[in-house]
Structures are given as C-alpha cells and as structure tokens.
Amino acid sequence: MNRPLLRPGSARQPAFPHQVTPAAAPAAMPARRRLFALALLLPVLLATLLLAACGRDRATADATGESAPRRFWQRSAEPVVTPVVDPLERYQVALKADSLAVLESMDRAPRYTLDVTLDVISRTLTGSGEVWVPNNSREPWNQVLFRLYPNLDYYGGDLTVHNVTLDGLPANFTYQDENTSLRILLPRPLLPDDGVTVRLTWKLLWPSWVDASAVYALFGKSQQMTSLPLFYPSLAVFDEGASVGSGRWWTTLGTVRGDAAYNYASLFTVKATLPSEQVPVTSGSLVLTNTVSPTQTQYTWVTGPSREFLLHMSPVFASASEEAYGTRVTSYWLPEDEVGGRAALRYAVASLRAFSDLYGDYPFRDMRVSVAPLGFRGMEYPQAMLLGVDLYNRQRPNLEVLVAHEMAHQWWYQMVHNDPVAAPWLDEAIAEYSVRLYMEELSGADRADLFEYQRWELPNEQLRQRGTDTVVSAPVDSFINGTQYETVVYGKGALFFAALRKELGDSQFRRFLQSYVNSHRWGIVADEDFLAALHIVGKPELVQLYREMVGDRALQVSAVPTGN
User: Fold this and answer.
1) Domain 92-97+102-415 belongs to what topology?
2) Of 47, 130, 206, 259, which is most buried, counting CB atoms within 10 Å of its CB?
3) How distant, in Å, are the alpha carbons of 308, 324, 337, 380, 499 from that of 348?
C-alpha cells in the first residue's frame, strides 16, 4: 500500500494503456491540443498505476498469510477488519451438550496451549506453550507473575524457564520466592481489560521417591506411577486490594499439609508426547491420538474451565468406565488392586450423581479416578481425583469416604475456588460435610449420624479436653500439627455446616448452597463472600453461629461484607 508510484518516463514505467499509436495519430497535432489530451489521460494513468500497486500488495499478503502482529502496547491508527473466529469453540468437546453455555462466561479467562515431551528414563519433561493473559483487575500491571509449583520443596522438582516472549518480542524475567515464581517485566503497563500472549519454553526434572505404599508423593515417581500436576508455568492469581494500587500477586509457598495451588479458572489445550507404554490419566477430554514413532504416542486434550491441568501416568494401569448423567467416569488401578479399583468406580459414579442433584450439574464429559502414591489420602484435580495406594487394600474401608470427599471438590474448589493456604476451610469443610449428604442419600440417616459422631464430634471433643481447640477460619500454617488442622478445618468446619442446616432446614439449606455455587461459579471467594451469602438469608442468628464456630476474621474486616 505504501509502494511509490513510478515517475512518468521511467525505464520501468508500464505501457500507457490509452496511448494513441503513431499510425492512428493525426499528422500534425497542434501543441495546445496535445497538452489538452495529455491532461485528460494523465489521471487515468495515475489511477491505473495506483490500483495495480495495491493489488500486488494484497496478492502478496494473501499468498503469504502474513501480517505484522499488533503488540498489546501498540495502538492501530485505523481499525483492522479480521474474520470472526470463535476462540472458545475448540473447548466445546470437553463439555456435555447441555452444558456448552458454560463457555459464555469464559471469554476473559486465561487460555493455555501447551506442548510437552516426556522421557521417563531421565525423568525429564521438555515443554513450550502460549498463555493468553487477560488483565481482569481494576489496575494496570507492570509485570506478570507465573508460579513454578514443581520447585516447591515438598514437590521436589526442578523447573527451569529458558525463554519468554510477549506478543512475539523477547522479554526479561527473573526468579523469586525461592524459585517458585517467575517475574516477567512488561514494556509498558498492561491496562485493565487488555491482554498479552506470553510464550514460554521450559525444562522440568521430576523426582523419584521410595517405592512404599505409605509414601505421600504429590509430585514425581513412585511405585510405577508418575504424578505431574502443574508441570508448566502457571499464571499467578492477582489479589486486588481495597483500593487501586494495593493489589498483589499471590506468591505463597504453602505447606505439604494443605493444597498448594491457587489458580484462575482457565482453558487448556495440551499436547503431550509420551512413551507408548504409559497410560495417561489427565484433566479434560482426549481429542486426538497419534503414533509418532514405534516407541512414542502423542495425545491432545482440551478442557472446559479448569483450575489446572493434571498429568498422571503408569505403564501398568488397568481401567474400567461407567456413565453418570452423561459423564464418562473412568477408574484406573494397579494390577493387584482390581477389586478396589472397581469399588472406586462405583463410589465415584454414585457420588457424582448425588452431588449433581444437590449442587447443580457437573458439566464435563469426563471424570477420572486413579490410584496414586498418596498413602491413605486423596487429592482433587479438575475432572480427576488421585487416591492413595493403601486405600485400595489395607485402608479400603475408608475408600468410599475419600472418593465422596474428593468428588465434592469438583464443586468446592474447582467451580467455587478459594485461597487454599489462607482460607482452606472454604472448600475443605463443605467437601467434608458433603460426605454426610452422600451417605444420607445412599445409606440413610443412621449411618450418616454414626459417621458424623465418629469422624467429627468425637475428635473435636478430644481437642477441647486437651485445650487445643481453635477457630476454623485460619491459615494452614497457624495450626500446631496435622491432627489439629484436620480435626478443626475438616471436622469442626463440617459441624458448622451441620448447624447451619439445622437453622435453615433441609430445603432452605439446599437452596442456600445452590445459590452460593451459582453466584460464584468459576470465581474465587474469601471469608467475606461466604459471610455476605449468610447476610442475604436475612437471619442474624446465622452470623452469630458463624462467629462462634468459624471465627470472626471476616467480621473484623467489615460488619456487612460484600461479594466479589
């Protein structure tokens, strides 16, 4: 478009399209008439040359498909017309047909496109990826932070970032927070409602732990299984402050006692090349499988809204699947634990149905349950749960309880999220109380009453007798040990929900929880948001109950807190 026109008389000037040939020209044309004719024809010549030049530019652009990318710090002088493409269409395959509307609220969600290759011999993952990072806060950002969760001490991994670009241009970055955060400097502030594409390349080494059924290994290899949650740089949460300019990036290190990750609901496309003998257990839904060599297979998964992406695998997994309300539930087990594996499948199907009825539909096509090197404990992930080896044999009487608890986290922590280090009770207490609701549905009130007494009431009474009772709403590291943490956050927290149910009655209690999910689905809540939900009910005694059983931390912030 900016190509200069050739000067008349230039050696490269194209033939004048309307030139009169000498044979047809008058023998003697007066000079004035010749000038008059030239004046008439000159605009035609210029227009022809201009159109030809523009046409060549368009043809070149169409042929190459290339155009100069616009950076988030650049502003176009003129609007650019581009074809309308739905960037969320690719994620529909991860959702049930009647749940596609979920994506309507995800147009401003972070989007990850990851490509990784794993070598299980050297325990190495090589990765590259793009993350579209929107600024959904009220204040401009001068930097963007990514969390490197594998570098946490209790994960034991080593994730090194090699290269970072912002909208295609090289960017400066530094490590901080004991190498668990990556700070990327921006060339100019990223304004609210703007976004930037961050491209990263990295290498990850994962640890190998002892092969013993009692081992608790959230990350790495043990007993022929490899667990790799958060194997990629994960966008940190930006916690807004009370006023513009007081916000901060979440860089908490956490402890092995609680959950480590705090994330935005995001959309993922993940391509992973694995040794062909490995059976992968992941978040999302599988959309493509390719054999890339005699020893390697490449898989591609996409997700709906997800807090993170899990990759867990083993060369010896067996599996079976059943359907629950349009969701395929798949259970994976070690060869010697088929009885436990099939039991886990039954419990997963039953609890998914029960909680869908209680809290609202589970929108995803897939849900996976797998054995993992977690001893007798469990861990929740988007569209997946991992359960310790001992639960499939020596601790099998506890398997059903753990499956139901972890399934409840698909609503409490995955749909409605919270800071797992500062306020773990917000998801753990209701997930724990959900086990009682599940038992009532399947086995009746008598079994549920006995469960409540043995698992919550008795341990809390013992804490009170020892003088070690404390408030429910407290950070993970404020508890003196794991026993106090689990008894108070899980047990006493569940008893708060039992008391809340008694105050409201069954029908209103159920409506309260459904309204709470609907109000905060795919968002992040704090104590103030839960207290605001209690205020909406309009019963002052509920706030007093909250003060007595949960604590008054949120009440000290605001007498009448507001939602997010």
Assistant:
1) Immunoglobulin-like (2.60.40)
2) 206
3) 21, 9, 16, 13, 27
Q: Beginning with the edge strand found earlier in the chain, give each strand of the sheet holding 220-222 in spatial order.
A: 220-222, 225-229, 310-314, 279-282
What is the percentage of the chain residues whose pLDDT exceeds 70? Answer: 83
CA-nearest of 327, 271, 276 to 301 is: 271
Domains 92-97+102-415 and 425-557 share a fold: no
Residue 334 identity: L
Q: Cα 554 to chain center, whole Å?
A: 27
Residue with tokens 């010896």: 316
Q: What DSSP letter does each residue of 427-493 carry, written as one string?
A: HHHHHHHHHHHHHHHHH-HHHHHHHHIIIIIHHHHHHHHHT----SS--GGGSSSHHHHIIIIIIIH
Does residue 65 come out as left (phi exceeding 0), alpha (psi in the -120 to 50 range) or beta?
Answer: left
d(CA 423, CA 209): 30
Q: Is 547 exposed, middle or buried (0-12, 13-18, 19+ CB in 10 A)?
A: middle
Query: Following CA atoms 377, 381, 384, 389 in sequence, which dihedral angle do they give, to the nearest 10 degrees?
Result: -20
Q: Three-state SS for 163?
A: strand
Tell me the C-alpha distance between 145 and 166, whole Å: 13
Distance CA 509, CA 49 (A): 76
> What's the pLDDT tens digit per position in 370-391?
999 999 999 999 999 999 999 9
Spans of all domains in the chain = 1-65, 92-97+102-415, 425-557
Evaluate whether 117 touches 124 at the Cβ level (below 8 Å).
no
Residue 99, pLDDT > 90, answer yes
Report pLDDT digits (tens) over 158-182: 999 999 999 999 999 999 999 999 9
